[in-house]
Amino acid sequence: MPAGAASKSTNANAKSLLDVRNITLRFGGVKALTDISFDVRAHEVRAIIGPNGAGKSSMLNCINGVYQPQEGAITFEGRTFRHMNSRQVAEMGIARTFQNLALFKGMSVLDNLMTGRNLKMTVNPLLQAVRWGPAAREELAHRERVEEIIDFLDIQPYRKTAVGKLPYGLQKRVDLGRALAMEPKVLLLDEPMAGMNVEEKQDMCRFILEVNQELGVTVVLIEHDMGVVMDISDRVVVLDYGKKIGDGTPNEVMANEDVIRAYLGAQQEA
Ligand SMILES: Nc1ncnc2c1ncn2[C@@H]1O[C@H](COP(=O)(O)OP(=O)(O)OP(=O)(O)O)[C@@H](O)[C@H]1O
Predict the structure, then answer these.
(1) Complex ipTM, two decimals?
(2) For residue 164, what are the CA distances in angstroms to 109, 146, 174?
(3) Ligand 1 center to 55 CA (angstroms)
(4) Residues in the ligand 1 pocket, defined by CB under 6 Å
(5) What domains, with CATH codes, occur in the chain?
(6) Residue nearest to atom 11 of ligand 1 (CA)
(7) pLDDT tens per residue across span 39-58
(8) pTM
């Protein structure tokens, strides 16, 4: 357990919030995903692991509507979808962070987080532009919510700083904040710890657990660091060459011979 990270307990009785069934995704002749099925229970932290090119990001892209799988379906809160677009997915309450940050580097932290509120803006964009009447009141309410997230993530000193001037670890935290500003039910995190030093990883682990436990957000994350996976996830899906080779608690997948052969063994040698 990284120092400072809250402890994590599993809840095997929680019901399934997101159900991924028989997903197959092809790019021309390349099969990125073959018949993948797994579920995500409400309020759990579900990790997706596997070697480079295993299909992890493609899986997240299917869940958030960026890719349209040729086969299979995804059920979210009891509604089954063959194809979803990214806006629908966001409106339903699924937010996403990216492996390569998708922030506006020249804009302040505060303004980047405000972009996460766009879907929740109801007032006519023309009134928003002149910040008149209802638009001004709405903007104030959104700013208050964003300020709460800034406090939650401990980034108050940087609220007016351009994101591009912040160290990488803090930029990743702002990216998490932008996704949280959407007030999601499910947060998809694509390698939230990549490129971080030990201290930054500890901070990020703590924030992910707090988002999960205090805000009640269900988390699906791609992660390569097995220490982190063991510490913060309830259950783990393992992909290799686009196929599922393991699914279970961190201890179960660590002991799975196929997983050791395809991934963990290679990691230990590296
Ligand atoms: N847009 C695309 N066009 C063509 N092939 C793609 C595309 N996206 C992914 N692929 C292919 O699908 C396979 C799975 O890639 P994906 O990025 O999902 O793996 P990954 O497990 O996330 O890898 P990494 O750990 O390196 O990020 C790879 O063979 C990749 O080249």
Answers:
(1) 0.96
(2) 9, 19, 11
(3) 6
(4) 27, 30, 32, 50, 52-58
(5) 16-93+184-270 (3.40.50.300), 105-182 (no CATH)
(6) 32
(7) 999 999 999 999 999 999 99
(8) 0.88
